[in-house]
Design goal:
The chain is mainly alpha-helical. The chain has a single domain (9-140), classed as Arp2/3 complex 21 kDa subunit ARPC3, CATH 1.10.1760. 67% of the residues lie in helices and 2% in strands. The chain contains eight helices and two strands. It has helices at 3-24, 41-51, 53-70, 72-75, 81-97, 102-106, 112-137, 158-167, and strands at 29-30, 36-37. Strand 1 and strand 2 form a beta hairpin. Helix 1 runs antiparallel to helix 2 (41-51), helix 2 runs antiparallel to helix 3 and helix 3 (53-70) crosses helix 5 (81-97). The longest helix is centred in the C-terminal third of the chain and has 26 residues, at 112-137. The chain is globular. The termini are far apart.
């Protein structure tokens, strides 16, 4: 790769990270218990698909680091140093780093467009796993009385009534 190609990749990486930062502030849907749905993942996934897993993971790491710096008060809610480290890793660094792995999953599908879709879905699932583990391991102690960190399906017909009343 010559110097102009390296510069182009670096500038494109910076622009996609900046786009991801902007998209992180545009909420598609706000969840009732906190959190929101945004499109911040898309530029990092596109970065990985365009330039490979190495550049994608690096871009995801930088974006996660920027998100952690701007949202550091969330890390401070943790009670112990170990929980703070877990929060920094699961909620920020790993959660966005895995988005750069999209090309690895995209190669599993012979169709190019299908591979891109599968890569985006697969890394979305990996990011969800990071968020799930964070909620279960770190934030489960903040769940309301009588509700565990993980709500499992049940055959009890009153479960829906109880859980829906917690949302309101």
């Amino acid at each position: 790769m010559n110097t102009s190609s390296k510069t182009r990749v670096m500038v494109e990486t910076a622009m996609l990270i900046a786009l991801a930062m902007i998209l992180s502030y545009i909420k598609v849907y706000e969840l009732p218990q906190g959190g929101s749905i945004t499109l911040e993942m898309l530029p990092i996934v596109v970065l990985g698909l365009r330039h490979g897993a190495k550049i994608g993971v690096a871009g995801g790491f930088v974006f996660g680091l920027l998100q952690m710096i701007l949202g550091f008060q969330n890390v401070l809610y943790c009670n112990t140093l170990l929980a703070m480290i877990g929060c920094a890793l699961l909620d920020y660094l790993l959660a966005f780093l895995v988005l750069g792995l999209a090309p690895i999953f995209a190669k599993m599908v012979p169709n190019r467009v299908g591979g891109y879709v599968w890569g985006a879905v697969a890394v979305g699932i990996l990011r969800f796993i990071c968020s799930f583990l964070s909620g279960w391991l770190l934030w489960g102690s903040y769940a309301p009385e009588g509700m565990g960190a993980v709500a499992l399906p049940t055959t009890d017909p009153t479960w829906f009534q109880t859980s829906s009343s917690l949302l309101l």
